Task: inverse folding
C-alpha cells in the first residue's frame, strides 16, 4: 500500500512517454489476466448467444397479418436482444475489477503497477474493445435474423416496411449505435464496480441502473417525470439509438440519447478513477 | 456449530432424516451469520426503504393534472365525475338510457328485442373526437334489454336480461354478476324475447325465441330490494376500442360508441299501468354522433308498440383498461417500488451463500453440519423470513402512504376489499421472500454472486419490461408472464377479471394472464426447482 501511495507524486511528474509505457505494460498485464481465465470468454460468448437468441425469438414471434397495419419499428424489434445482452456485459464489466478485490489480487496488481490510472485505463480499454467486438457479432446476428425472418412474417417492402439491413441508413445507425451502447454500458458498469468494489453490490447497482428506470417509467403517468426519465435515464435515452421510425416523437434524439448514456459512463468512470486513486486497495 | 454436531457427524442426508433438534441448531447458526454481518442487515433495511420510497414516488406521480375541454388546469378529484359504487362496494360504471315505469310489489316485465344496432367512432384513421363521424357497428358488450333496478341512483342494485353485441343473451346483476344464456347471433335476424320476474327479493330471468317456450337463464337474490322498483328497457354500449391484435396495449384506440335497441311486445304486469318515462342514468344517453341528439336527452322514442332506446356507457364494474372511459389506478400500482426492493434483497440473498465460498467459510460450515441439505434449508428459511419482513414493511408503507396519493390525481382509484388488500400486501412480501430463496439457491449452484444476482433479477424484470412496454406481441408477452418467475407478480392483482368487461393484459396496469394464486404457484414451482438443483449440486460437488 505504501508503495502505491508514495508512487503518486512520481506518477504525476512522469513524462508522457513513461506514462504510455506504463499503460502498455498495464494493457499487457490485463490482457494476460483476461485470457488466462475462462470466465470472460464464456461471458462474451453469452453476450453474443443471448442477444441473438432473444432477438431471433422476438422477430420469430412477431407477425403482421394482412388486414392490420402494424406500428412496428422492425429494426428496433430485431435488436430486442440487446436488452438482455447488456446484463451479461454488465457482469463481465463488474467482474473485471471486483474479482481482483474479491481474491485480493488487486494488491499484487497495484504493487506491480503503482500507476493506478494506467491500471484502470487498461481495464477500460480492453473491456471496451472486447465488448465492442462481441457486441458487433451479437448485433450483426440479430439484424441478420430480422432480415431473414421478418419479410416472411408480413413485414414486406410492398407494405411500406424498410428492409432490416445495413444498407438502409437508419438501420445502419441503429446497429452501430447498439454496439456503442453495449460498450458504454460496459464502461459505466466498470466505473460503478471501481467505486463499489464488491461484485454482488456492484451488479445490484448496475442492474438497477439498467432496468429500474424503464419499469418506473412504465408506472409513472406524470408527464413531467415521464419526459425527464425519457431524456436522462441511461438505458431509456441510450436505446433511442435503435429507433428508426417515429423519431420526431422521441424525447431525445438517437445520438443525443446515446450521448446521455456516454455522460453516465463518463461520470461513473471518473468517479471510479477518483475513488480508485484516493482509497487504499 | 455446536460440538454435539461435530461429534456426531452424519453422512450426507437430506432434511428427511428426522434430525429436528439438529436443524434448529443449524437454523440458529445461519441466523447468527446473517445478523452479525452489518452489510446484510443494512441491505435488507435498504430494500424495505427503497420499496417504500419508490412506491410512494410512483404513487404520487401516477398521472398529471387534467384539462377538460380547454378549461382551466385542474388537479385531484376535481378532474373526475361522480364515481358510483356498487352494492358490493366496488367502483362501477352505471350509465345507460332507461325507458322505465315504477313497479310496486311482485311483477313481471316482458319485451321482445327486435333489433340491436350500434354506431361507433370512426377509428380507421387514428383517434377521432366524438361527433366527427360515426360508422355502424356494435361493440362486443353493447347491450340492450330489460332491467329491474332499485332506483335511478347510480350504483343501485339491479338485475337485467339483455342481448349483447357478440356475447349472446346474458343475465347480469349487481354489476359483477354475469350468467350466459343461449348463445345467439345477430338479434336483427333472431328477435329474442326476454322476461324478468320479481318475487320478493328474487329476480328470475328467462329468454325465449318465440314468446311461448321460455328457458330460465338465472335466478338471483337482490337483498334489500325496496317495495317499489324501476323496471323497463335499457340500452348502452361501452367505448369502441381498436386493439392491434398482435401488439399489446400500445396501440389501443378508444372512441365513443352507442347501442340502439328496438323493443316490441312490451308488457309490464303487477302494478297499475303507468306511463313510460325516459331517463338517462349517469349521462348514458346517445353518444352524440348526430348533431343535437345528445342535447335532446331523449332516452327513448315510441311509435305505437315499438320502443327505440339509444344509450352509451356501461353497466359493469369499472376495471383498468380502455373500456372504462376514465383513467383508473389500482392499489398495486403503489407497489412498483417492490422492483427496487427486489434487487436489494436478491443481492443480499445471493451473498448469503456465495460469501461462504469466497471466504472459505463453507468448509467450516459443512464440517460443523455435514448435512448439506440442512445448511441449504436453514439459509433459505433465514433469508426468506428476513426478506418477507423487509417486503412486508415496504408493502404496508407503500399501500398506506401511496394509495391516498394515487387517489388525489384525477384518476379513479379502484378500491379493493380489505381481504384483497391484505392478500396484495402479504403476497408482495411472500413474492420477495421466494425470490430471495431463489437467489440463495442460485448462489449455491453458481457460487458466483454476479451471475446469481443477474439471473434472479432478470427473470423477473425482463418479462415485465418486455410485455409491459409492448416490445413483443401481446401473445408472447402473456406467455412470458405465465411461464417465468415473473408470473408470481400476479399475486398483486387486486381487481378481478370480469368476463363481461373487455380487459387488456398489462402488468403495468394491473392485469396478468394468470389468476393471482396460479401465478404465485408458478413462482413457488420455480423456487422448488431452484432449491432442488442447488441441493443436487451441493451434494455432488466438493465445497
Result:
Amino acid at each position: 500500500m505504501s508503495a502505491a501511495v508514495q508512487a503518486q507524486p512520481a506518477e504525476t511528474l512522469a513524462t508522457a512517454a513513461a506514462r504510455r509505457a506504463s499503460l502498455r505494460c498495464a494493457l499487457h498485464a490485463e490482457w494476460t489476466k483476461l485470457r488466462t481465465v475462462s470466465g470472460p470468454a464464456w461471458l462474451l460468448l453469452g453476450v453474443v448467444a443471448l442477444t441473438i437468441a432473444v432477438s431471433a425469438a422476438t422477430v420469430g414471434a412477431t407477425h403482421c397479418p394482412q388486414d392490420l397495419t402494424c406500428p412496428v419499428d422492425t429494426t428496433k424489434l430485431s435488436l430486442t436482444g440487446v436488452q438482455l445482452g447488456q446484463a451479461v456485459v454488465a457482469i463481465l464489466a463488474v467482474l473485471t475489477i471486483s474479482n481482483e478485490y474479491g481474491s485480493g489480487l488487486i494488491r499484487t496488481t497495484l504493487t506491480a503497477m503503482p500507476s493506478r490510472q494506467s491500471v484502470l485505463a487498461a481495464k477500460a480499454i480492453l473491456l471496451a474493445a472486447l465488448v465492442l467486438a462481441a457486441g458487433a457479432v451479437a448485433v450483426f446476428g440479430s439484424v441478420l435474423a430480422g432480415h431473414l425472418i421478418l419479410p416472411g412474417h408480413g413485414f414486406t417492402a410492398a407494405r411500406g416496411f424498410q428492409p432490416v439491413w445495413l444498407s438502409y441508413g437508419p438501420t445502419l445507425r441503429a446497429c452501430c449505435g447498439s454496439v456503442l451502447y453495449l460498450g458504454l454500458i460496459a464502461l459505466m458498469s466498470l466505473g460503478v464496480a471501481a467505486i463499489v468494489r464488491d461484485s454482488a453490490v456492484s451488479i445490484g447497482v448496475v442492474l438497477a441502473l439498467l432496468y429500474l428506470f424503464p419499469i418506473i417509467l412504465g408506472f409513472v403517468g406524470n408527464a413531467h417525470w415521464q419526459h425527464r426519465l425519457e431524456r436522462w435515464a441511461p438505458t431509456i435515452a441510450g436505446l433511442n439509438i435503435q429507433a428508426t421510425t417515429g423519431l420526431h416523437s422521441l424525447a431525445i434524439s438517437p445520438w443525443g440519447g446515446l450521448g446521455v448514456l456516454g455522460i453516465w459512463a463518463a461520470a461513473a468512470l471518473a468517479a471510479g478513477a477518483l475513488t480508485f486513486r484516493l482509497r487504499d486497495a | 456449530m455446536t460440538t454435539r454436531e461435530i461429534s456426531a457427524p452424519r453422512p450426507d442426508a437430506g432434511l428427511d432424516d428426522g434430525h429436528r433438534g439438529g436443524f434448529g441448531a443449524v437454523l440458529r447458526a445461519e441466523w447468527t451469520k446473517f445478523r452479525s454481518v452489518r452489510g446484510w442487515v443494512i441491505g435488507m433495511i435498504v430494500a424495505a426503504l427503497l420499496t417504500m420510497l419508490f412506491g410512494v414516488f410512483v404513487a404520487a406521480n401516477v398521472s398529471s393534472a387534467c384539462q377538460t375541454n380547454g378549461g382551466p388546469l385542474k388537479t385531484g378529484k376535481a378532474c373526475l365525475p361522480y364515481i358510483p359504487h356498487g352494492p358490493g362496494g366496488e367502483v362501477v360504471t352505471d350509465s345507460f338510457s332507461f325507458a322505465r315505469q315504477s313497479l310496486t310489489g311482485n311483477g313481471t316485465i316482458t319485451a321482445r328485442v327486435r333489433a340491436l344496432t350500434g354506431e361507433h367512432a370512426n377509428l380507421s384513421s387514428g383517434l377521432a373526437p366524438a361527433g366527427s363521424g360515426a360508422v355502424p357497428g356494435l361493440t362486443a358488450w353493447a347491450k340492450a334489454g330489460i332491467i329491474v333496478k332499485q332506483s335511478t341512483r347510480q350504483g343501485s342494485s339491479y338485475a337485467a336480461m339483455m342481448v349483447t353485441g357478440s356475447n349472446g343473451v346474458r343475465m347480469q346483476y349487481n354489476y359483477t354478476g354475469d350468467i350466459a344464456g343461449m348463445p345467439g347471433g345477430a338479434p336483427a335476424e333472431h328477435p329474442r324475447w326476454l322476461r324478468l320476474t320479481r318475487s320478493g327479493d328474487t329476480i328470475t330471468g328467462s329468454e325465449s325465441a318465440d314468446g311461448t317456450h321460455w328457458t330460465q337463464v338465472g335466478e338471483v337474490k337482490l337483498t334489500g330490494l325496496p317495495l317499489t322498483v324501476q323496471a323497463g328497457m335499457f340500452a348502452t354500449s361501452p367505448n369502441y376500442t381498436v386493439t392491434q391484435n398482435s401488439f399489446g396495449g400500445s396501440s389501443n384506440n378508444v372512441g365513443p360508441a352507442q347501442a340502439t335497441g328496438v323493443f316490441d311486445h312490451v308488457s309490464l304486469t303487477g302494478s297499475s299501468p303507468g306511463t313510460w318515462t325516459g331517463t338517462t342514468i349517469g349521462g348514458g344517453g346517445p353518444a352524440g354522433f348526430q348533431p343535437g341528439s345528445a342535447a335532446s336527452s331523449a332516452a327513448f322514442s315510441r311509435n305505437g308498440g315499438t320502443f327505440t332506446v339509444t344509450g352509451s356507457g356501461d353497466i359493469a364494474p369499472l376495471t383498468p383498461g380502455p373500456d372504462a372511459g376514465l383513467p383508473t389506478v389500482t392499489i398495486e400500482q403503489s407497489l412498483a417500488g417492490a422492483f427496487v426492493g427486489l434487487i436489494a434483497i436478491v443481492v443480499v440473498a445471493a451473498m448469503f451463500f456465495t460469501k461462504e465460498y469466497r471466504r472459505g467459510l463453507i468448509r467450516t460450515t459443512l464440517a460443523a453440519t455435514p448435512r448439506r441439505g440442512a445448511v441449504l434449508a436453514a439459509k433459505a428459511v433465514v433469508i426468506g423470513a428476513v426478506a418477507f419482513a423487509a417486503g412486508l414493511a415496504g408493502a404496508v408503507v407503500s399501500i398506506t402512504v401511496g394509495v391516498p396519493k394515487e387517489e388525489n390525481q384525477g384518476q379513479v382509484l379502484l378500491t379493493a376489499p380489505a381481504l384483497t388488500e391484505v392478500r396484495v400486501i402479504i403476497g408482495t412480501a411472500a413474492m420477495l421472500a421466494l425470490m430471495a430463496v431463489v437467489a440463495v439457491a442460485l448462489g449455491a449452484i453458481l457460487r458466483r454472486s454476479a451471475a446469481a444476482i443477474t439471473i434472479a433479477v432478470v427473470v423477473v424484470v425482463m418479462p415485465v419490461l418486455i410485455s409491459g412496454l409492448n416490445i413483443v406481441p401481446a401473445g408472447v408477452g402473456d406467455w412470458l408472464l405465465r411461464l417465468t418467475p415473473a408470473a408470481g407478480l400476479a399475486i398483486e392483482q387486486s381487481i378481478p377479471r370480469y368476463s363481461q368487461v373487455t380487459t387488456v393484459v398489462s402488468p403495468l396496469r394491473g392485469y396478468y394472464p394468470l389468476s393471482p394464486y396460479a401465478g404465485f404457484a408458478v413462482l413457488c414451482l420455480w423456487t422448488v426447482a431452484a432449491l432442488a438443483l442447488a441441493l443436487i449440486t451441493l451434494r455432488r460437488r466438493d465445497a
